[in-house]
Give the backbone structure.
Amino acid sequence: MSKTALITGITGQDGSYLAELLLSKGYTVHGLIRRASTFNTHRIDHLYRDPHDPDSKLFLHYGDLSDGARLVTLLAEIHPQEVYHLAAQSHVRVSFDEPEHTGDVTGIGTTRLLEAIRMIGLDCRFYQASTSEMFGATPPPQREDTPFYPRSPYGAAKLYSYWMVRNYREGYGMFATNGILFNHESPRRGETFVTRKITRAVADIASGRADHVFLGNLDAVRDWGYAPEYVEGMWRMLQADEPDDFVLATGHAYTVRDFVEAAFGHAGLDWEKHVRFDDRYLRPTEVDALIGDASKARNVLGWEPRVLTPELARIMVDADIERVRAPEAARLA
Ligand code: NAP
Ligand code: GDD
């Protein structure tokens, strides 16, 4: 029997890769999308078929995490066996500008979804997109039992969601799991996260369309992995015998400067000629270093990351160079 899954945030980086993975496993996939005045489905357009097509396995539904009643009607309509909750205001810097909105969507939005599941008595497995940002100021290496110390409205909202997931697991016996994922990137990464901002700039500079890029703190340390491998980990978490919390990370540390060097170097460019500083990209409080220990996921789930930061930078630069060369062909990368 084919399984049915609901993905919130299906139009985002992770949602698009997860939809691909689940469809390849024979799932029927439902996705929650926001109504927008412009198209926001470019990451999943290649997966979508006319719903009148009898072979169609991907269905999209309008809804918003701020609208709890809609979450109830949607869950009652589609009765998913697995719910992957990926939707969020996910940008850390933006969360300082929009702390209330971030709390409402990234924090309370999770409670609305959990409560909708509980209200209709839906028997499903629930994945929460928790984050290494919850560790914030606690020094690395970070793992499941490392104390949390969030340093942004986004981190605080995600930590609230994390505890709500644990509360529904312990209080109502729900199969609810937190995936505590460290940074993961890809050619589909949002354009204002630092890796993609850098690789887009490299492609624009290499093609002569731009000369420089403005960045903030180059000293921050991150543990960047490859998004398609991380969505495989999400799926494994919901196939486990018991609900639990798992870190996914590569365990390798690089600074933003390292990523800049790797990306510009791959295109034969000297980064110091093209990177300028702008303090608008600094945060009121910074997370200095995130380096994860994913031993538990390796031991319990058999999950193993393969792509490390230098290769990731090359994959992303190549994709952005291709996007500049042949924009239409590169749309599905
Ligand atoms: P992303 O590309 O920013 O995607 C976010 C998704 O959430 C988009 O589909 C967006 O829709 C949707 N969304 C935002 N606000 C919404 C609302 N009010 N109602 C309904 N949908 C809404 O994020 P991502 O990189 O794929 O990450 C997926 C999840 O994992 C996020 O929760 C993120 O916080 C978390 N996470 C990410 C990483 C990482 O390194 N990527 C690491 C740890 C945790 P639109 O397309 O319409 O904007
Ligand atoms: N975005 C951005 N833009 N970041 C910059 C810039 C810039 O111009 N210059 C330097 N940085 C630094 C930031 O200060 C931060 O230390 C680091 O680059 C990474 O920033 P982002 O790529 O915006 O990611 P993030 O680590 O803050 O958050 C991402 O990872 C989290 C998991 O740790 C997001 O995907 C979150 O949603 C996710 O939870």
In short: The longest strand covers residues 125-131. The chain is about 40% helix and 15% strand. The chain has a mean pLDDT of 97.
